[in-house]
Amino acid sequence: MSAKNLRGYDAQGGEAVSVRAIDNGDGTFSPAVSVNLITPDADITQLITVATSGSPVQGPAKTNPGGWYLAPGTTNTGAVYFMYHGQTKATKGMPIAQLTPVPVSDLSSLDFDADTSGNIILASKA
After folding, report:
1. DSSP type of residue 106
2. CA 19, CA 4: separation in Å to the nearest integer?
3. End-to-end CA distance of the chain, in Å?
4. Each residue of 4-29: pLDDT tens digit?
5. CA dihedral 91, 55, 79, 45 (to 10 degrees)
6. What would the pLDDT profile of 94-106 be if each residue is shown by its tens digit?
7. Nearest CA to 96 among 112, 108, 85?
8. Residue 66 sits in a domain of what CATH number?
9. Is residue 14 part of a domain?
10. b/e per residue, 86-115, with b = 16+ CB within 10 A?
């Protein structure tokens, strides 16, 4: 197998897509990377604020079939966590690292908590 660059062209002959692919050796190609394209819209990013530490906040009713990336706010003074709706930070909370991919389509299926009241979580469509 070897890697090749494949190009697609629009109706006017201009290059529209360039993709790195693996030549399977049998006349077929496999993508070298998986790309999930999203359409930018008003819901591309979400801001979730934990008003009171220890009181989980349910995520907003926003969906994306490709899942979400979560990140802590840059001004947070403690850790932030996510868990499935109805669970608690103490038993099931996962800390949110600098950029955490989460394979759920609906943010409302998650709860968020923080070590410090007022901390925020940023969510972006994956």
Report:
1. B
2. 8
3. 30
4. 554 555 455 554 455 566 677 787 76
5. 110
6. 999 889 999 999 9
7. 112
8. 2.60.120
9. yes
10. ebebeeebeebeeebebeeebbeebbbbbb
